[in-house]
Amino acid sequence: MFQVPAWIRRHSFSWKISFTQKLMLIFLFVSLIPVTLVQLFNYYYTVKVMERKVKEYAGSSLTHTIRNLRTELSAYEDLVYQVAYDDSLIELLAQLNDKYDAATWNKLQLKLNILSYSKKWINSLVLITENGDSVISIDRTGQDINNHFWQSLGDLTGTTFYRKSIELYSRNVWEGTKFLGAYGDTLYYSFFLSRRIIDFNTNRPLGVVVLSIGEPLLTGIYADQKEEMRQDLNKTFIVDETGRIISHPVKKLIGGDVRDIFPPPVAKQLLRKEDLIELNSKIFGKGVIVDSAPISKTGWRVVNIIDRDHLFREIRLTKNLILLIQTFAMISLILIAISVSKRLTAAVKKIVQAMLKAENGDLSVRVETDTDDEISLIAKSFNTMIEKIRSLVEEVKRVTQKEKEAEIKKLEMQINPHFLYNTLDSINWMAIEKGELEISESLKQLANILRYSVNGSNQKVTLRQESEWLRDYLALQKCRFSDSFTYRIAIDPELMDCWIHKLLLQPFIENAIIHGLAGKTNGGILEITGKSFGADQMLLTIRDNGKGMNRAKILSVFEKRENGEAGIGITNALSRLELYYGANYRLHVKSPVNGGTIIRIIIPKDWEGRETDANRCG
């Protein structure tokens, strides 16, 4: 408790005053100290808070910018993917690889011309064959600038994006911005997206598709139209992993190096492979805040510069106004406190006493006041709160009791799986005693299937274990459908010890039996194969000779799963693939009407039977 100095007590004849008066005197005495401290530290604190808020806003803005960039770039990735997996285009490209033919070349160019108009910022679309021939779409700039650019490169098989696409096999390759040329006062810049084209039916490499995209696509997302003319240092731009500027509102800086803008130590930190980098630095003698974050799958980073000096010049002006308002508020508070202290103290005591009773469990307590002010509102709110707490306590009691009853019912309804196993085993012996060996074998298979399915449905097993289970499963299905189909399981021996999530293939196989082979009374064929696909992936194929599906049916089964139109099994299988492998899996469905169905699933090889960082990375 605050102690009044002795010299005040000795020289004061009226110190024996009421508690309220003592409270007000002490409040007046110590009020000068907080006012002084506020005046001393307010500016420092305000600057720190504002700087933190600015960084938070900058980080949020940067995240939003990157999300928009990623969304826009994904649309162009989808276009390249469409080209790389277009069956008719692959067929034409294979013919051009085998033998150059003007008619084939013209057909390919026509396809590219059509595709080049599907996105606003496509400058041109190019196919480079394995033997060095190229097919170039129409020049979207309208000034023949793209054609001159491609001609200036000479042999396109020697370009960086071609070589990288070959090295990365069937992954997208992003190449930084290059200067295409100028027309009048307009400068044309493009960045590039390429991907190797492979005929997955024959695993034959056919060439590389290259997409030339106008650089204004990027600046249109992160920069306003007046940013180039701004006099402060606030800027946003994009660099690649080497520090080369690939997009900037000031076009003449494109192609330059970030080290020309920042001191070398700061530039080096900005290029670290981290999700978010925040730095304080100086540019041209001015303080700046710099944020940097990566654009996934591109190797690029967005750099955001905030002019700290320009920003806090306004804050310093605001500081003086805040100090003035604080001083006025303090004086007003003291005057008001003196006039209402007695009534305030009495009302507060009532509320405190009621709170103590409530703390001890008395929820029937209520606060009665004879005032009509803020304290009265607090008292009414307290009474309302206590009543709500009392109601909630009663509700919790009722809910808890219902949950206990529901849990008891749930436990009563549970069936021990071992009861099912033992029952099946008993029926099996009954079948053996009666000489029904075929039924006995089916019961064994059913018991194995049940045991395998129930125990740890989401755990991993080896392909050897999964294929053994599939044999039992298919044997029962074959029996169920009166031997209307035959099946074959062929897994490469080298993959038998690879790990896979249990029951991953079963929904696709069941779909093939029930829907693909529906209506066949004999002659049905179902084939499940597994083989290596590159060094780190494997290809699992499910093939049937059933009635196939048209495109609309394929889309309804394999894509429209969010609204529940697909079967539960397929929906769960697709969701599990995304959950387990993220962007590291591919699913390809080929199903011509009356031509059977082929489902190809490409997933990473897992030799350890556990989740690893490699399984999760893109």
Automatic annotation (TrEMBL):
One GO CC term on file: plasma membrane
Residues of the HAMP domain: 342-394
Membrane-protein topology: Multi-pass membrane protein
Molecular-function annotations in GO: ATP binding; phosphorelay sensor kinase activity
Main location: membrane
InterPro entries: Bact_2-comp_sensor_kinase, dCache_1, HAMP_dom, HATPase_C_sf, HATPase_dom, Sig_transdc_His_kin_internal
Domain of life the protein comes from: Bacteria
Keyword line: ATP-binding, Cell membrane, Kinase, Membrane, Nucleotide-binding, Phosphoprotein, Transferase, Transmembrane, Transmembrane helix, Two-component regulatory system
Intracellular or extracellular location(s): Cell membrane
Transmembrane segments: 23-45, 321-340
This protein's name: Two-component system sensor histidine kinase YesM
Annotated organism of origin: Hydrogenispora ethanolica
Biological classification of the source: Bacteria, Bacillati, Bacillota, Hydrogenispora
